[in-house]
Amino acid sequence: MAIGDILGELAVGIVAEAVSSAFDGGGGEKKPDIGDGLIIVGGSYAGAQIAATARDAGYTGRIRLVTAEAHPPYHRPPLSKAYLLGKAERDSLTIRGPAFYEQEKVELLLSTPIVAADRTNRTLTTSGGDTLKWDRLALATGARARTLPGTPDNVLTLRDLADADRLRDVASSAANVVVIGGGYIGLEAAASLSQLGKRVTVVEMQDRLLARAATPALAQFVADAHRARGVELLFGARDVGFDHDHGVLTGVRASDAAGRAHTLPADLAVVGIGVSPNTELAAMLGLAVDDGIRVDEFACCIDAASGVAVPEIVAAGDCTRHPSRWNPVQGMELRLESVQNATDQAKIAGATLAEGQAPKPYDAVPWFWSDQFDLKLQMVGLTGVPDVTVTRGDMASNRFSLFHFRGGALVGVDSVNKPADHMLARRLLATQTPVTPEQAADAAFDLRSTLPT
Amino acid sequence: MPTINYVLKDGTRRAIEVPNGTSVMLGAINNNLRGIDAECGGCCSCATCHVYVEESDMARLKPADAVEKELLEGVAAERKPTSRLSCQIDVTAALDGLTVYMPDRQS
């Protein structure tokens, strides 16, 4: 098979390029390199980190980072916080400065959407019709915001810088804002817009905030905090609809849990109802896709037909679904939407590309953060449904942590304005250090003393 | 523009002009100085932009606030009295000539 491929490629005039290391790991057979190096599709955390790690791990071939966006990779979390508040400007968002791309010889192809991909010929096709050849491919395609059908103007989603610029623009003249979806993005947008003096209502379909992403105890605290700071919350929302005047939003309609119909005046609505992973290219490449691009613990993609790992194609970040011992549903592959996952999985992916297989499998403890008003929320671990939760610190002071236990073991910690607890909890979970609920609840007990020395 | 001296893990010294109003962290990121990860982008959530400040420069800095102090408890490398998070060091003319050292690791 390999020889046939080489002959086929030589026959069409492509000369093999010497690339540093041979592949010997992974479940599948690595095809020989025939040029033209590594292509990374997607310009965000994972894309930038794959390039950096591949270089650090000794990859000397050509690297191209291809992104549909007009900007090199930038930090997205500030878009709903400091950037929306006008406290951060575009230049401060960059993940890696121009010197990185220049010195590490990472070519940036901006404003270049990829519309087709072919594994047999190892090519990508750009929206402009250009063909790009690759030996090794990294999919860091991310996810896109889910939208509602048939929405008038001024109903916006928030995912990238272009979205944030539009939101800032519309928000500058808006007075009444409805946020649809009480997840992290929606709540961060609600907090920022409220701080900008807007009247904000959050409309949530579930009976609580953060239904998918946080424990009920943390969600209750966050709900109380938003209400205390002037944000209205509407739970159990059904039949959400939009009123408009010549296509421009004037109000949001929704019925609440009790079936009462509401019409909320609105000149801006922000829709934060989750994301869909961008898996189209993976599917075109014959890779396994299941609400995410399936990867193994070394970030290798998986052949859809054989189920065998494909060592020359990796994926990382929001677009992937990966095996994880942190998943509360044991044995289920996990899809995470977080900076931590993008960065840590990309380090594995970059090392796998450079060395054939990363030295260690992906096993990092998942952690997240969210800043809302004066509240710094930091979460570590995937708690699922805890059977014991204890509070460390004083909830009324807005400085505390919730320690969650399942089957006697610490499985997650939510911290509010307690970064020291969060940092310690990351170490406790990573080292699987036994901690009891009594120790966790006793603020006078030094939890650091439980750590292995 | 103030000059910030970064001492890399291998001992290399790099003098970098860093614009006023940015941070010591951004100075490293924008110039591809390895050793500062800054995973959270400077919002004081991750403690991966840890540096050691030259002892004689410490008095020139505004002291760390409560959040930074807490995060410093969780840095991956050894915490020293001169430990700071570089995203929290705002660059001003008063910091011209400041020297910071990269720790051996950030995570």
Search tags:
heterodimer; A: 453 residues; alpha/beta; FAD/NAD(P)-binding domain; Enolase-like, domain 1; 3 domains; six-stranded mixed beta sheet; five-stranded parallel beta sheet; 10 helices; 23% helix; globular; disordered N terminus; B: 107 residues; alpha+beta; Ubiquitin-like (UB roll); five-stranded mixed beta sheet; 2 helices
Note down, in words, how this protein is organized:
- The complex is a heterodimer of chains A (453) and B (107).
- Helix content of chain A is 23%, strand content 27%.
- Chain A has ten helices and 26 strands.
- In chain A, strand 25 and strand 26 form a beta hairpin.
- In chain A, helix 2 packs parallel to helix 8 (339-355).
- Chain B is an alpha+beta fold and 107 residues long.
- Chain B has a single domain, classed as Ubiquitin-like (UB roll).
- Chain B contains two helices and five strands; from the N terminus they run E-E-H-E-H-E-E.
- In chain B, strand 1 (3-7) and strand 2 form a beta hairpin.
- Chain B is globular.
- The model of chain B has no long low-confidence stretch (mean pLDDT 95).
Lay out the secondary structure.
The complex is a heterodimer of chains A (453) and B (107).
Chain A: H1 2-11, E1 38-41, H2 45-56, E2 63-66, H3 98-103, E3 106-109, E4 114-118, E5 123-126, E6 131-133, E7 136-139, E8 143-145, E9 155-156, H4 161-171, E10 176-180, H5 184-195, E11 199-203, H6 216-228, E12 232-234, E13 238-245, E14 248-255, E15 261-265, E16 268-271, E17 275-277, H7 280-284, E18 293-294, E19 300-302, E20 309-315, E21 320-321, H8 339-355, E22 367-372, E23 375-380, E24 388-394, E25 399-406, E26 409-416, H9 419-430, H10 437-441
Parallel strand pairs in A: 1-2, 1-7, 2-3, 7-20, 9-16, 10-11, 10-16, 11-12, 18-21
Antiparallel strand pairs in A: 4-5, 5-6, 8-17, 13-14, 14-15, 19-20, 22-23, 23-26, 24-25, 25-26
Chain B: E1 3-7, E2 13-17, H1 24-30, E3 50-53, H2 66-72, E4 83-85, E5 98-101
Parallel strand pairs in B: 1-5
Antiparallel strand pairs in B: 1-2, 3-4, 3-5
